[in-house]
Design goal:
The chain has a four-stranded mixed sheet. A three-stranded antiparallel sheet has the order 4-3-7, with no helix packed on it. The longest helix has 31 residues, at 2-32. It starts with a helix and ends with a strand. The chain has three helices and nine strands. It has a domain at 125-262: Sandwich (Immunoglobulin-like), CATH 2.60.40. The protein is rod-shaped. Helix content is 18%, strand content 17%. By secondary structure, the chain is of the alpha+beta class.
Length: 264
């Protein structure tokens, strides 16, 4: 439609311009005949006609309008139905009933036992050992010794020097340490002696001590168990037979070992 309009306008303009070019020579001839004077007739110069150049008008670019997108029809959201909330059932709380509880019987306090007092020993020195010296160690009967070997120990069993020992009749005394650590000796003749601890040699402090059984120098004064363990007879029967038939066997050549130990 737009192109047709442009073509019509171009044709109309061309017709107008063609008519104008035809009227121009007629006017020039009328001028030649006016007046009596010999007027030089100008030469006819045809007016160049305008050449219409057909200009192509660019066709407008056809813009494609985007097709409208189809809008999704909203779906009907179902209206939620109101759900009737059941009312909570009130459960009656039972009132606490008085329950009879057994009242615990109080336990009488337990008396804390008092520590047992350490018993004070009745003696300062106890008799730890008393035995007849073995026959072999005593060098037999004919040349056998007649000695009482005395050892004094402290409460821990270590040798203890400076302790006076002697017989219960106060006939002889010796001090431990003279024959080695805690050791001393008393010669035994044709007699029997009970040995005991008497006092401290340095301070003179007296001691209460257990006494040994009689340490004799003849078989008649020696118990059978001591004779058997020392090897002088085989058993009680043998010892009794020797005592009755050979009472002077090894007479005067018996030795003893006596050990005293402090109690604190």
């Amino acid at each position: 439609m737009i192109r047709l309009r442009h073509t019509f306008l171009l044709i109309l303009i061309g017709l107008v311009l063609g008519c104008a070019s035809q009227q121009t020579p007629l006017a020039m001839n009328q001028v030649k005949n006016v007046g009596t004077q010999n007027i030089e007739t100008p030469s006819y110069s045809p007016t160049p006609s305008r050449t219409l150049t057909r200009t192509s008008t660019p066709s407008p670019t056809h813009t494609t309008s985007p097709s409208p997108t189809s809008t999704a029809t909203p779906t009907n959201t179902p209206t939620p139905t109101s759900t009737r909330t059941p009312r909570p059932t009130v459960t009656p709380t039972p009132s606490p009933s008085a329950t009879a509880t057994d009242t615990p019987t109080p336990v009488p306090p337990t008396s804390t036992p008092l520590p047992t007092p350490t018993a004070t020993p009745d003696v300062d020195f106890r008799l730890a050992s008393w035995r007849l010296w073995p026959l072999e160690l005593n060098s037999g009967c004919e040349k056998g010794m007649h000695t009482i070997f005395i050892i004094v120990l402290d409460a821990n069993g270590a040798p203890l020097d400076g302790v006076v020992v002697g017989d219960s009749w106060n006939n002889v005394e010796e001090v431990s340490g003279r024959k080695g650590p805690g050791r001393t000796e008393i010669n035994l003749w044709a007699n029997a002696m009970e040995i005991t601890v008497k006092r401290d040699a340095a301070t003179g402090e007296t001691y209460v001590s257990e006494a040994s059984p009689p340490s004799g120098s003849f078989m008649t004064d020696i118990p059978n168990d001591q004779l058997v363990q020392a090897g002088y007879c085989a058993n009680d029967v043998h010892c009794d037979w020797m005592r009755e038939n050979d009472g002077y066997h090894c007479g005067g050549h018996y030795s003893w070992e006596i050990i005293f130990q402090r109690t604190y």
